[in-house]
Each structure stands twice: as C-alpha cells, then as structure tokens.
Amino acid sequence: MARKKSPERQRELPTIPKELIDQFVKGPMNAEAVNAASMAFKKALIERALGAELSHHLGYAPGEARPEEAVNHRNGASGKTVLTEDGPLRIDVPRDRIGSFEPLLIPKHERRFTGLDDKIVAMYARGMTMREIQGFLREQYGTEVSAGSLTNCCRYDSSTIQGD
After folding, report:
1. What is the pTM of this model?
2. Distance between CA atoms of 74 and 61, rounded to whole angstroms?
3. Strands (E), the chain
4. Phi/psi at 26 (5° precision)
5. What is the CA radius of gyration of the chain?
6. Among 42, 50, 99, 142, which residue's CB has the most CB atoms within a 10 Å radius?
C-alpha cells in the first residue's frame, strides 16, 4: 500500500504591508497585470539590495556625508538586463567611482538571476537538446540564449554535482 507523502515544508514568506499592495492593486487584475506587478516589485527589491551592497562597500548610506578618509564614492548606475525565472528584467546596477564594487547578488558579467540555471540543467538532464532548450527559453521567456551559454551553464553545474 502506498504511503501518503508528507507535505513539503514551505518557506516562510515575508509579510507585505496592505498599503503597499494597495498601491499596486487598484481593482481587478488579470494574470498579465499580476506578472507585471511582480516584475516591478522584483526590480525594486533587486535594485534596493544592490544599493545596500554598495552602501556597505563604501561605508556610508546615500544622502549621508562621505567620510573624509573615503576616496571612493557613488558614481550613478548602469543598466543591465538579467534573465529571471519570469523573463528578462532591466535593472540599474549602482557603480562606484573607482570601480572596485563587486555586487554579490548579481555579480559583474552575470546575466542570469538565481534559479534559471537549475531549470536549464533540469531540462538538459531530462534529455532535451540545446536547440530544444533554446526554443523553450525563446517561447517562455522571450529571450535568446546562445548554445555556448547553455553549455557553460550545464558544464558548471554538472562539475559541481560530480565534485570536480
């Protein structure tokens, strides 16, 4: 006799204040509007986290006076498109004057945001070809990913699994 699977424990999600939700929801929403609001919120969270990383790196928050001993300071932001589980997302990554800021959330030269690599490896492990994976990403996320990028993704992840 088959046993019932125990329910998986879900992560505790942070509580979002009602006032914030009221700013996004003005009435009935369709799925596209929910996805757009989710992407806007994700963009804001990522940019806020990157800003906090830069503040930590520089040793002072935006709007505060720069410490006299500090030679580095904020220098605007540069645009970057990252591929998320929900599709491409254009974000502004803060910069520092010297160029020594190395973001941890989305490192320099990284184009994928957490989670997509796992999906690509799962598709590859299930026997999908690189062309099939490219087609799937094009249809589902509206983005072109080179075969080289897919190969690098699968090579990296399989080496970490094998312990190389």
Report:
1. 0.68
2. 10
3. 74-84, 87-96
4. -105, -5
5. 20
6. 50
